[in-house]
Amino acid sequence: MSTAVLDRPVAADKVGAGIIDSDIHPAPAQGGETLKPYMARRWQDHLDLYGQQTNGPYASVYGYPRYMPGTARRDAWPENGGLPGSDLSLMRAQHLDRNDVALGIMEPLGFGQSAHNVEFGAALVSAVNDWQVDAFVDQEPRLRASLVIAHEDARAAVAEIRRRAPDRRYAQIQLVSLAAEPLGRRRYWPIYEEAAAYGLPIGIHVGGPAGARTASGWPAYYNEEHLSLVATMQTHMMSLIFEGVCEYFPQLKFVLIEGGVAWSIPLRKRIDRLWRSMGSEVPHVKRPPSDYVAENFYFSTQPIEEPEAPEDLVHIFEQVGWDRLLYASDYPHWDYDDPKYAFKTEMPEDKMNKVMRSNALGLYRL
After folding, report:
1. CA–CA separation, 116 vs 108, rounded Å?
2. I need a surface site. Which of 13, 224, 240, 247 has the fewest CB within 10 A?
3. pTM score, whole prediction
4. Between the CA of residue 112 and those of 50, 247, 289, 300, what are the distances in Å?
């Protein structure tokens, strides 16, 4: 496995002229079997005997249409029998080359991020971090890895960050939205301190195995479960602001990935109104909460809202802020957004250049 450290970032003018994709999902070709060479024998045996803990309502079900199967578009299954997202040549053909992707941020999912067995989780995420660099980043200069951590064990997470953060092949630290507690809680602050010290943004991707999908328990239908993931993003944004994370770490940036964008418009107004009425409860929140939204948070465009009047999307983007949006494809998942068709109305070219490229150049450590 490769352990080289890249001391200097890639200059922005050296990044190709194409788009920057903030959400590409790689997958180990054979799942946990692919990760075993990166794990100590103890954890290889553990994986064989006990597998990964999960408490999802459909833990072993991958039938159409919920997972389509494998959460992927049907043409993304490689001929070699691996999982969608595992074949770099197919990723190039279907997305990187076809859509002139200058840079893609990988978002590995499903291995150890919020494992109940935190020691096993730490071993899994470390394996994922080694694997994605070996299998993708070192083979394809247009790709960057996410530094995956087992965030329920802050001490192990900090150790993993310190070990990987000097390596410029990692563009961000990745969390998942289904955490044990709202992410503003103090138990997670050591992670934010390290992220701020290394200048790494934090991507929060929807999903994870930690708990029920809604604040009231398990939903009855996938329609409810899929949409409820948006609510987890609202919860974390409010927690990070009201617990004081954005005030104490003002340079820290959060990217809310696959959680929608339009909901942030009315939420900003509501939390400002609450703060004006009950600000004495949170004296550490020194400015209107909407200020922190505007300065500390970014939103990925996938899955983007599709209003009945497509031109209304321009007004949505204006209110969210053109400088707060990052294009995301979600390749190779079933709701993949091709950059040529993702926005079903004519958009201002100069503004869309921010969404498709320049915002990411200013955010990610290149």
Report:
1. 18
2. 13
3. 0.92
4. 14, 29, 32, 23
